[in-house]
């Protein structure tokens, strides 16, 4: 990966971890990872928050791959297993601004 510092890489991983932890514990934990105008498969991000809260606490596991970072834009893949019995692959577009790295778009597909 070029154009990325260790600090940026660590901050991107922290954003991903907030998302993962929130998926298991509730949307309030994941909300700081997202830009206020973020989307999920083209819908408002509140759709995700509602689904997470409706599902309740979980025990999923996940792997985070930082696919690319160029200046203030990053793309990550999160492979998640057993989120309430379902497996998913997510792609997150992340942008760095004055508030740090934030997910601005999440696109996912179910893999089982």
Work out the radius of gyration. Answer: 13 Å
Helix content: 25-40%
- Euclidean distance between termini CA atoms: 31 Å
* Average of per-residue pLDDT values: 95
Instruction: List unreliable stretches of 5+ residues.
Output: none
The secondary structure category is alpha+beta
Shape: globular
Helical element count?
3
Give a short account of the largest sheet.
Answer: 6 strands, mixed
Give me the strand/helix succession. HHEEHEEEE
Compute the number of strand runs.
6
Widest sheet: strand ordering: 2-1-6-5-4-3
Beta-strand content: over 45%
Task: Explain what you see.
- The protein is α+β, with helices and mostly antiparallel strands and 112 residues long.
- The protein is globular and about 40 Å long.
- It contains 3 helices and 6 strands.
- It has a 6-stranded mixed sheet with strand order 2-1-6-5-4-3, covered by helices on one side.
- The N and C termini lie far apart (31 Å).
- The longest helix has 20 residues, at 6-25.
How is this fold's topology laid out?
Elements: H1 6-25, H2 27-30, E1 34-40, E2 43-44, H3 46-55, E3 61-70, E4 73-83, E5 86-97, E6 100-110
Parallel strand pairs: 1-6
Antiparallel strand pairs: 1-2, 3-4, 4-5, 5-6
What are the salient characteristics of this protein?
6 strands, six-stranded mixed beta sheet, alpha+beta, 112 residues
Task: Explain briefly what this protein structure is.
The protein has 3 helices and 6 strands. The protein is an alpha+beta fold.
């Amino acid at each position: 990966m070029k154009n990325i510092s260790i600090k940026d890489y660590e901050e991107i991983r922290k954003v991903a971890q907030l998302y993962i932890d929130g998926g298991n514990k509730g949307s309030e934990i994941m909300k700081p990872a997202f830009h206020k105008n973020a989307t999920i498969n083209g819908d408002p991000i509140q759709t995700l928050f509602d689904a997470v809260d409706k599902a309740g606490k979980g025990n999923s596991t996940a792997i985070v791959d930082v696919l690319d970072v160029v200046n203030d834009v990053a793309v990550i893949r999160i492979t998640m297993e057993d989120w309430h019995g379902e497996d998913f692959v997510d792609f997150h577009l992340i942008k760095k601004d004055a508030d740090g790295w934030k997910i601005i778009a999440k696109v996912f597909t179910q893999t089982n």
